[in-house]
Amino acid sequence: MQDNEYAVVTDKKEISTATPGEPLTSSAKFMRGHGTYIENDKVVSAVAGVVEQINKLVTVRALKARYTGEIGDVVVGRITELAQKRWKVDVNSRQDAILMLSAIHLPGGVQRRKSESDELRMTTFFAEGDLIVAEIQAFFADGAISIHTRNLKYGKLRNGTLVKIPPALVQRSRSHFHTLPCGVDVILGVNGYIWICKHTPLEVVEANPENIYSSQNDAISETDRSNIARVANCILALSHQFVHIHETAIVYAFEASLPFAIKDLLSESVANEIAVETKSKLQ
Fold it and tell me: For this UniProt entry, what is the primary localization, expressed as one broad class (predicted)?
């Protein structure tokens, strides 16, 4: 049996989805990883998920699995609880992530040791229900994720909307912060939480560091609102068709969606049409 009988895994490192029991490759040069097993000298998928290939190692990440973080991952999360010198954050993992008081920027970008007065003012930094973007910096002994926001590109999120998709569909890249041609900023959280908001130049953020913990949304024009809603529905449409989410795919999907009304983008027929056109452009 030849390798080319299976389009899932090849020397070209194609990425696709697989169903339980689906043969991935029969070549002896590939090694099986998590989510696979050997049957009749073939590497077979054990779960429904996304096929990943690192050199000669083949794994399948389950679509419905909880997010398992890696150090350096950019994640979007929601504050669920305030505790002593820390916040608990829902990042779509098996347990809440931990954001320590010592792991945040103080208003104005001041770098100093956190004092008791800072602990008393924790709710002025992040309150329950706030959405944040952060980076994974370590893991605790019990497996809990430790995150930080010690950078102006991280912190509280405003002026936008949250979209949730399976983490396996978010494609890892060098940067997960993107500004689309339509004037919308997108943060692709590796944990499957995606933030879509009005574009704010980094220079504006750096010029007003005291506003990094503001909970007040800016005035958003009707055009920006429409573009945010269209991008959000495009991402959901692609995820429903199991298309990997990255900047290029979102741009192509946005262009393909323009003939349709925003509210129609989530209908099965329109979502399928957008996904097909997006896939054809990505090839």
Answer: nucleus
Q: Mind listing the pLDDT tens digit for each residue in 110-146?
A: 666 677 888 888 888 999 999 999 999 999 999 999 9
Residues in Cβ contact with 182 at an 8 Å cutoff, skipping those fewer than 6 apart: 227, 230, 231, 254
Per-residue confidence (pLDDT) for residue 121, from 0 to 100: 85
CATH architecture of 74-211: Beta Barrel (2.40)
Global pTM reads 0.84
What parts of the chain have a pLDDT lower than 50? 1-7, 10-14
Residue 110 confidence (pLDDT): 64
Other CB atoms within 10 A of residue 67 CB: 22
Tell me the C-alpha distance between 263 and 133, whole Å: 28
Q: How many CB atoms lie within 10 A of CB 157?
A: 19
Q: Where do runs of H (alpha helix) occur along the chain? A: 116-120, 122-125, 202-207, 222-240, 247-257, 268-282
Residue 254 and residue 234 in contact, taking contact as beta carbons nearer than 8 Å:
yes
pLDDT of residue 112: 63
Max Cα–Cα distance, the chain, nearest Å:
69
DSSP secondary structure, 249-271, as one string:
HHHHHHHHHTTS-GGGTTSHHHH
The pLDDT assigned to 13 comes to 43
Domain chopping of the chain, boundaries: 3-62, 74-211, 222-282
pLDDT at residue number 28: 83
- Do 114 and 100 touch, CB atoms closer than 8 A? no
Matching fold, domains 3-62 and 74-211: yes
